């Protein structure tokens, strides 16, 4: 039975059963594969026949994970990587060369900033940053050698949002690629490809796994573009392990129900903190006070599980709050079943200068709250006593 429903697709898409008729997909822990004869080996390596030749290229577990993600995201094809940053690096490496130019949202993950400033800049790729809240400035940054627009929306950790339909039209107008990091939203809340994105990227380490267990990433898009990604990835080797692919594919079965609870809890936390006298600012996409609230409502199903706050009193007050938390974990990760507090200025975005952090709204008092699946009363109680 075919279905167009997210939950059914995520649960019922799996590799063909073996002669053992297993109900759950097995783990294919193999680095290589046996060929029936020399001709089959030749045909597979010549891409005349579909099949597995080496697990750095493909594996039944990674293929199942990719197939599910393509169906959920509305993409034709994909390639799974060992980490989310490997997905970003592989996408940049596949499509950017010496002399090319990139326009990126200013608010990007710290390691993405490092790639742009310290890696690809050394390889002759230039870039300009644009602000998500100033869409009127984007087109002026496009040059004759601009090959790509890259954006996080919602952004990490500022929770800024840009209109994906606007960016999709802009990219098509100038015949350049639009690449969207869809990590915070997941395909359950947002499908960038439907709004004109060419490539959608995920750190599957985050909500796709959702339980803080394994690393992974994925690149999704049309077959023609993913062919270029595969060509680069096969030789640079950022492949996802079969075991991690198996975990991530199983995790997708509960993504919808997990995201519903993450979003429900996060909205309640945001509403509570917005009224708290010790909180200077709250950013959450589905709060009416969010500057891009209307855009968020247009392109996102719900607001996600991340709430970013600024505590009154700067870094000292932020540290006091974090050290006062009893249930929340202090960690650099996010999107776990367990609630997590992170101080971006001294961790995930510490390699940015203070001026660069200020430009994307990361203050010394900024704290990123990844709201987990615990009972909402316990989440709010922990926050309340830490702010007391």
UniProtKB/TrEMBL annotation:
It is an enzyme of class 2 (transferase). Its cofactor is pyridoxal 5'-phosphate. GO terms for molecular function: carbon-sulfur lyase activity; pyridoxal phosphate binding; transaminase activity; transferase activity, transferring alkyl or aryl (other than methyl) groups. Homotetramer. The keyword Lipid metabolism does not apply. Coiled coil: none annotated. The lineage of its organism: Bacteria, Pseudomonadati, Bacteroidota, Sphingobacteriia, Sphingobacteriales. The keyword Amino-acid biosynthesis applies. Keywords: Amino-acid biosynthesis, Aminotransferase, Methionine biosynthesis, Pyridoxal phosphate, Transferase. Belongs to the trans-sulfuration enzymes family. MetZ subfamily. Its EC number is 2.5.1.-. GO terms for cellular component: cytoplasm. It comes from Pedobacter alluvionis. The modification N6-(pyridoxal phosphate)lysine is found at residue 206. Pathway: Amino-acid biosynthesis; L-methionine biosynthesis via de novo pathway; L-homocysteine from O-succinyl-L-homoserine: step 1/1. This is O-succinylhomoserine sulfhydrylase. HAMAP family: MetZ.
